Amino acid sequence: xxxxxxxxxxxxxxxxxxxxxxxxxxxxxxxxxxxxxxxxxxxxxxxxxxxxxxxxxxxxxxxxxxxxxxxxxxxxxxxxxxxxxxxxxxxxxxxxxxxxxxxxxxxxxxxxxxxxxxxxxxxxxxxxxxxxxxxxxxxxxxxxxxxxxxxxxxxxxxxxxx
Length: 162
Known about the structure:
- By secondary structure, the chain is mainly beta.
- It contains three helices and eleven strands.
């Protein structure tokens, strides 16, 4: 069996490529989740896995210790095998702020997700739109790059003038 991999990239001291077995080293949490899915109605599942906060903290987000509350400017982009993407703020997962128990699920209803890859699970969301199956990448960004160059100010001026 080929194991799915996810890439931790962006503004991190220790970027990494991880598989589901790699993610078992962090403390594991279980959560019963009910969410509404636009295509198939209400879904109920039992997920287990590490908190996204723990995994990313160990990867070393490049917060500037001199800048007060610097971590609040960081965004987290999570992408799945189907291209679906969800964005979270660091404040959502940080225990000093919202402390949302966002999981990188390694099992769903007791079944391992080794081949499919971990799932992003947001128990606090009523709608399941930010649940990502088969995570391929997690990018931490303090400058809002997310893979595309932002237009330069001269380019923005030209866009608004036309």
